[in-house]
Amino acid sequence: VNFGRALELDLPAVPASCPHARHAVHEALSCVAVEISAVDLAVTEAVTNVVVHAYRDTGPADGPGRVRIALTIEDETALVVVSDEGAGMAPRGDSPGLGMGLSLIASVCDELEIEQRDDGTRVHMRFALHADARGARTEGASAE
Amino acid sequence: MPFPFDIARPVSDEQTRRRVATNQALLRRVNEAMRFHRVDDVVAFRCECGQLGCNRLIGLTRAEYTAVRAHRRRFAVVAGHEVVEIERTVEHHDRYAVVETDDPAATTVAEQTSPRQMRGR
Asked: Which of A88, A92, A99 sits opposite B54 (nearest CB)?
C-alpha cells in the first residue's frame, strides 16, 4: 500500500497554527485506520515546539517564521514530518516550557527521528496503520 | 545550584523511583531519535534526569553519546540533576555528567527498556 504524499502545509509559526495543523492532519487521515489520537497529540506537540522554541532568537521585524507539515502514507505507515528553519536545538538555561513535548511524541509514535540540521530542525514521526485497515485499503485500491 | 523542579520532593517510595526511572527511559528514547549529520558535531540532547519540569538540553558528540549508551543503566544529565536516591554519578564532564542507576526498581526499568537490549532481542 503506498498512497504517497497526502498533505503539505506551510504555516506561520504562531499559536493558531497548532490547532490548524492538527485539524488538517486529522482530516487527511479520516479514512485511514491509524491511532488518530496519537497523531493528533504528536502533531500538536511538534508544531507547538516550533512555535515556542524554533524562532525564539528572531526579532519581531523578522516575522514569525514558518512551520511546515508533510503527511505521507507509505510502507503501511503514516509519516508526519514537521520542519522549521529556526535556530535549532541548543543547550540553554532559559528555555520555556515543561519539557514534556518530545517525551509525549516519543511515547505515542511508532518511530521517531529528530534531524538537527544547519537550516533548521525536522521531526519525523511514523505511525503504523492498523493491520485490519491495511487489508481494507488494499482491497479498496484493487477495486479502483 | 538547587534544582527547582520535583527533585525537591523526596524520591523515597518505590512508585516514585519507578516514575523517575520511567521518565529517564522515555528521555533516552527521545535522545535515541536524534540524528547526526557529521561525526564531530555536538548535538543537543535532552537531559535524562527524569525530573518533571526539566527541559534542559546538553551537548554531546556522537562518541560521547555512544559511550553513555554502551551501558544500559547510564544516563547523561546536566550536572546537578542527579537523583541520589536512585543513581550515582560516575563521570563528570564540562557539558554534562553521567549517572548510573543503583536502585533496584530504577535499574529494572533502565535495563528492560534499554534500546540496545531491545534491538538485540
From this structure: A99
